[in-house]
Each structure stands twice: as structure tokens, then as C-alpha cells.
Amino acid sequence: MKPTRRTFIKTGALSVAALSTHGAEENNAGKPAEMHPLDYGLSFVCHTAPFNSVRFWVESRTRLIDDCTGTWTDFYQCGACKSENTFAERDLFMKDNYDFTPVFGGGDVLVFRRPARIHEQYRTVKRASELWGEPSMRLREGAHFEELASWDAIARATASAIPLVSQTELANAETQLRAIIECPTKTINIQPEKKQYQVDTGPIAFPDLAKRSARPIDTLSLAFVAFNAPGFADVVVEQPTSVVEEHGATHQVYHYSNPFSVPARNRLLAVYRE
After folding, report:
1. Could you tell me if 110 and 131 are in contact, meaning their C-beta atoms sit under 8 angstroms apart?
2. Which of 111, 177, 247, 262 has a CA 20 to 30 Å removed from the CA of 74?
């Protein structure tokens, strides 16, 4: 029988909260409340420009919090596509192709263009309205969610094929900046004998909390995050990376490289639609 929220609760799940559809939360005053997880199958950034009413699927969310001012901004990293000749009669993909990944937030859009070689337009920032008109944030929170606070609860939700969302909170005491990185758990490893788990998910929009910027979106990079305990996370960021061929030639490509570990507060949430 397909597991439901009711049957899962009977086996030892934690508290459940009912939520509703909401919009973007940007530059809000006051201390941010608990960040309710999005339903990542039902959250999109939509546009209505007559030349291209493009819709992007939201793939992760990063809340950047300024504890000095009590304000925060949400950034929405969207799924990647390929460079294309949109609405052409033929040859729909550009010959010199690249990945195209947008991040929306604070009225801006950061676009990562990843060709096969290092390129000066790898990252560009514009006002979001300049590309396809003003974006409409069509975001849906999970109808119900619960925090999985034990290995048994995590293993049970994983085996039951219940959608999981992770939240990783980071902080920098010197700059007084914090971030909550939220993403659907695309991959999770379970080790029953040792009762271990490990989450590995990305890309996400990873902020550099060590510096303040007049335009906070400039601090974001594409990254993957992994964790197997509540108190730390490992991160690997996409960046120019040197590659040495067998014949000794060296060149650079964009690659996720130089992983590092950071103190973090990790949560795993089971998200339900009914």
C-alpha cells in the first residue's frame, strides 16, 4: 500500500504543520520565522513577456539573512537548460553550446553560462525585469511537513519514497550574516547496519558569508552540499579548475572542485501534498 501522511505518522513521525501557497519573501523586517519547505515539484518562476513567456522550475532556495538589520532576501536557483535558438525553424541548440542556470532574488537575476571553456560571461547580473519582464514567483509550500530527527525516521521516510527537503543553516559571526540553504534531497544514502545516512544534493546557490555586498546576489556561487550529521556540511563549489592532460598540456574548465567543510545546522524534512 502506498504510504500516506497518516500511516507514516503512526510509525513514529514527528509534528506536522499545515501550510499554504505563498509568494517570494524579500527584504522582510524582523527576525525570520522558521522557513517552511517548498514543494519543489510545484514551484516555478513564470514570465509573461510577449516574445518569450518562459517558465523556470525552482531547484533550490537560499535565504540570506542580515542579523544587523533584521532583514533577509530569498534567492531561487532554477533548473539548468542549454543555450538555444528559441522558436527557430531548425537547429534549436546553439552550436557553441553552454549550460544556462538562472538565480532570481532581490529584483535581480544572476545567470551562470557554462561553456566548454573559461568565458568572461560565466556569470552576469541584471535586473530581472530586463530579460523576460517582471517575474512572477509561483511558489508552493508543502501541504504538510515534519522534521526527521532520528536515523530511524530518516530511513523510514527514504524507504517509503516520501519527498525529502534539506535545510542547511550557516552563519558568520564577524559579518553577522546567516543563510539557510534549502533543496530537495535528490540523493540520499542509507547504511542500515551502522545506522548512517548521507545527503548529497545540488546545485544550490551557495553564499559567501565572509563579505558584505551592496548587491547580495553577487556573493552566490553554484555548489553541491553533503552532510551525514546535524552539525556540519561539506561543500564543493563550481569554479575554474585546472586540468592536466596525459601529454602535459594544461587548460581550465568549469568544474566542482576543492571541497571544504563548514559548521552548519542541518535539518531533514519529509514533505507531503496531502
Report:
1. no
2. 262
CB 113 within 8 A of CB 100: yes
Instruction: Tell me the pLDDT tens digit for each residue of 172-191.
Output: 999 999 999 999 999 999 99
Q: Where are the beta strands (DSSP E) in the chain?
A: 17-18, 21-22, 26-28, 44-46, 55-66, 71-78, 81-82, 99-105, 108-114, 123-127, 136-140, 144-147, 164-172, 177-184, 188-191, 196-207, 220-227, 232-244, 250-263, 265-272
Report how far Cα 204 is from the mean position of its chain's Cα atoms. Answer: 4
Task: Find cell 497518516 and name the residue.
Answer: 6
Interval 211-253: pLDDT, tens: 999 999 999 999 999 999 999 999 999 998 888 887 777 888 8
d(CA 24, CA 17): 20
Residue with cell 531547484: 59
